Amino acid sequence: MKSSPPLNARILDPTDENIQNAVLLLKQGGIVAMPTETVYGLAGNAFDAQALSKIFLAKDRPTFDPLIAHVALEKSTFADLMREQLVSPQELSDLAVKRIDRLIREYWPGPLTLVLPRGKLVPDLATSGMETVAIRAPKHPVARRLIRELGLPVCAPSANRFGRISPTSAKDVKEELGDRIELILDGGDCEIGIESTILQITEDGEPILLRPGVISREALAKTLGVSIENPCDEPANSGSPRVIAPGRLESHYAPKKPLRLLATTLAQMMTPPILPGITGRAGEIPAGKKVGLLISSGNAKAAGETLSAILDAEVITETLSEKGDWLEAAQNFFKKLRALDASDANFLLAEPIPQAVQESSGIAYAIADRLLRAAAPKE
Ligand code: AMP
Ligand code: MG
Questions:
Q1: Ligand 2 centroid, distance to 162 Cα (angstroms)
Q2: Which residues have a Cβ under 8 Å from the Cβ of 202 and sit 6 or more positions away?
Q3: Candidates 112, 130, 198: which one to mutate for ligand 1, based on the most atoms within 8 Å of Cβ?
Q4: Which pLDDT tens digit goes with each residue over 157-198?
Q5: Which of 105, 252, 257, 308 is in the most buried spot, having the most CB atoms within 10 Å?
Q6: Is it the case that residue 242 has pLDDT exceeding 50?
Q7: What is the mean pLDDT of the chain?
Q8: Residue having the nearest C-alpha atom to atom 10 of ligand 1
């Protein structure tokens, strides 16, 4: 079979005309990259299986990894989602509907995805054949306008090749998919920077956290007035009947260069008695190699000098937030990881986020989750 020639995506400002062109493309069953407040998404008509297959193809995404449908309903409720035939009320208890409405009222539009019973119009490809569908209402004005003017929900996974670093700017999308799509709407840098929190509401109303994000488990628990299960922490072989969200693979968000987590923070490394923080690794660094270092807070230059002295190697450092602000760290996470990947470092090291910090901040926990997957072996 003859393969089609590579495309050359245009990055366009979200003017009225360009949005109309994007809407037209979507109406014809095409796909378009759009900004959202979390990361850039690759959008296609959520009810058009052919459009969805183009998303999977462009991303090299396996079809066992379901998509999130994005809606732009004003002040929506569960009943509105039902009217759109996105969700089905079957078997849902009154408590479940009440909780869903409470969450929608509090967090939409915003970075919260709800996993709910699937409606009639949702193609199998969107849900990987499951009886539930993931839905969120993005806050970014360009995404909202695009969906509103299309008049239909869109599915929009992150606009990167499968398993790689998520894009947080139009330029990142061009780097990832420039030869596979036609159009990228430029909505500036993403404000949140990491993917949405995913919460499933079961038929009897039980909330289960499937992916951490900037809306923390604690915040959701407070909104609902109940505790929330977190199977994200359970190892795959725990024997637990609960599974984390499908498609949440161990290796994800990965740079092209090898990335390892340091065994301790740099501060711990420097605290007497000096810990062998990169046990065994220092010896593995061949002379003349450059190290890319990602730290979560504090001064990049100072951290780079510290590690450089320990390793006796040149170190290029990026900090997620110099002042230790976790919202800023989330915003910077994929951007800085991408910058290190594009630098002339030969391999990358990242400072781990200590358990106690993860327990004190839901956002730190969400970043640590991404970091662990970014550093996981790719095989
Ligand atoms: P994203 O990669 O941000 O587009 O998010 C897609 C992720 O949402 C998938 O990888 C799954 O982890 C999760 N997801 C989507 N649909 C469902 C569903 N029906 N049930 C559970 N998780 C889902
Ligand atoms: Mg993704």
A1: 7
A2: 96, 208
A3: 198
A4: 999 999 999 999 999 999 999 999 999 999 999 999 999 999
A5: 252
A6: no
A7: 90
A8: 247
The answer to whether 76 touches 87, Cβ cutoff 8 Å, is: no
Q: How far is CA 166 from CA 189, 284, 369, in A?
A: 12, 29, 14
Can you tell me the distance from the alpha carbon of 102 to that of 361, in angstroms, rounded to the nearest whole number? 23
Radius of gyration of the CA atoms of the chain, in A: 21
DSSP 118: B
User: Which ligand 1 atom lies nearest to the CA of residue 130?
Assistant: 19
Q: Which domains does the chain have, with CATH numbers?
A: 10-224 (3.90.870.10), 259-374 (3.40.50)
DSSP three-state, residue 89: coil
Collapsed DSSP state (helix, strand, coil) of residue 251: coil
The residues that bridge with 118 in the sheet, in sequence order, are: 87
CA 233 to chain centre: 17
Helix (H) or strand (E) holding 72: none
Distance CA 314, CA 320 (A): 20
Give the residue-averaged pLDDT of 313-319: 95
What is the rounded CA–CA span in Å between residue 77 and residue 114? 12
Residue nearest atom 4 in ligand 1 by C-alpha distance: 157
Q: Which two tokens stand for residue 268?
A: 């711990």
Tokens of 188: 């500036």
Q: Which residue has the tokens 């996993």?
A: 115
**Residue 138 predicted with pLDDT over 80:** yes
Task: Cite the beta strand spans of the chain per DSSP E.
Answer: 10-12, 32-34, 41-45, 68-70, 112-117, 132-136, 154-155, 183-185, 197-201, 207-211, 259-261, 290-297, 314-321, 347-350
Q: Which pLDDT tens digit goes with each residue over 56-97?
A: 999 999 999 999 999 998 778 999 999 989 999 877 999 999
Tell the residue nearest (CA) to atom 12 of ligand 1.
Answer: 245
Single-letter amino acid code for the residue at 131: E
Parallel, antiparallel or unpaired: strands 347-350 and 259-261: parallel
Residue that is written with structure tokens 């900037």 in the block: 214
